[in-house]
């Protein structure tokens, strides 16, 4: 292909240059040289894909049956509508900025959808269908400032009340594991609902979280199984192919019943991730190592955020009490 585009003399020069690199022990290939040349000149794009086709290909990375990918696609579709059948390269910084400003008034949703757009375009750069220079321009769109809101936590007494309530229910085998994985491992709600019992690996003393955040092809996250969590999961263990807990809608109804009976405020708008926050706060209090906590949560790049949120959120004594909550015998 290269010979079809270069004359004989240019092809010979290219071959000699590659031989010189090889003789010098350099592992750089001619393709690497070409790629660096393109990037140095603004990241020229080798392939052209329409906006619609690019979005379709991007969404193939996700499990379309899950809520998060559906929300992501609905959001990005409104951005792509601006250029539709045009090449993706037609999407510029101004288009993204106007889309964000026109559609998202709340600073939180503005920042969320800014992240959606940049993740999509970052992927497009890696696929060589969007110029690096244009992505760099888009990434200069500033986030909106969001007033700090402290995460919600449950103390050890509340966690124990919840676990004891769950133990008393007729469907405890489909209810207790959900609470246990949330409070004692910090696994995301959506991740728990995708789990089968084969993902609870008692021999390895860990939990395998497949497709974190619902992204297909993403390597699984391995979460350590504490002695507390192991005790709860062993008591309610089912066959490998069985789901770990009931579906999300059924769990929501059971949670409402629990809140009414125990007098617990669990408003999804304010503290929908309270189990994960509670675990993170307790883990930091016990180990004082935000890198270790970040690794357990799958947030290896957000250690400063973790420290700001959790460093002084939970007292060590309360964390020790929570992690000492064991299932009742019998």
TrEMBL record:
Transmembrane intervals: none
Keyword vocabulary terms for this entry: DNA recombination, DNA-binding
An individual GO BP term: DNA recombination
Source organism (scientific name): Candidatus Falkowbacteria bacterium CG23_combo_of_CG06-09_8_20_14_all_49_15
Ranges where the Core-binding (CB) domain occurs: 53-125
A GO molecular-function descriptor: DNA binding
InterPro entries linked to this entry: CB, DNA_brk_join_enz, Integrase-like_cat_sf, Integrase_catalytic
Domain Tyr recombinase intervals: 149-323
Protein name stated in the entry: Tyr recombinase domain-containing protein
């Amino acid at each position: 292909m290269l010979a079809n585009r270069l004359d004989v003399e240019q092809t010979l020069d290219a071959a000699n240059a590659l031989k010189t690199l090889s003789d010098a022990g350099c592992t750089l290939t001619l393709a690497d040289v070409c790629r660096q040349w393109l990037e140095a000149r603004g990241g020229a794009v080798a392939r052209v894909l329409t906006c619609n086709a690019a979005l379709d290909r991007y969404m193939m990375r996700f499990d379309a049956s899950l809520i998060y990918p559906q929300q992501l696609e609905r959001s990005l579709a409104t951005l792509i509508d601006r250029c539709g059948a045009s090449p993706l390269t037609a999407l510029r910084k101004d288009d993204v900025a106007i889309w964000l400003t026109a559609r998202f008034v709340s600073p939180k949703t503005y920042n969320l959808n800014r992240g959606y757009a940049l993740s999509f375009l970052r992927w497009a750069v890696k696929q060589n269908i969007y110029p690096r220079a244009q992505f760099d321009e888009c990434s200069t769109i500033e986030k909106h400032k969001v007033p700090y809101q402290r995460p919600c936590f449950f103390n050890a007494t509340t966690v124990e009340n919840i676990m004891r309530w769950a133990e008393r229910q007729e469907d405890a085998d489909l209810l207790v594991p959900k609470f246990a994985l949330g409070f004692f491992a910090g696994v995301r709600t959506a991740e728990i609902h995708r789990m089968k019992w084969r993902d609870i690996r008692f021999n390895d003393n860990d939990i395998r979280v497949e497709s974190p955040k619902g992204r297909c092809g993403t390597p699984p996250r391995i979460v350590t199984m504490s002695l507390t969590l192991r005790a709860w999961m062993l008591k309610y263990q089912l066959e490998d192919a069985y789901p770990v807990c009931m579906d999300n809608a059924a769990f929501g109804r059971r949670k409402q019943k629990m809140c009414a009976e125990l007098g617990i405020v669990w408003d999804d708008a304010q503290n929908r991730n309270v189990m994960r926050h509670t675990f993170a706060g307790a883990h930091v209090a016990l180990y004082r190592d935000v890198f270790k906590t970040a690794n357990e949560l799958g947030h290896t790049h957000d250690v400063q955020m973790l420290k700001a949120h959790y460093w002084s959120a939970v007292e060590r004594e309360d964390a020790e009490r929570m992690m000492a909550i064991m299932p009742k015998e019998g």
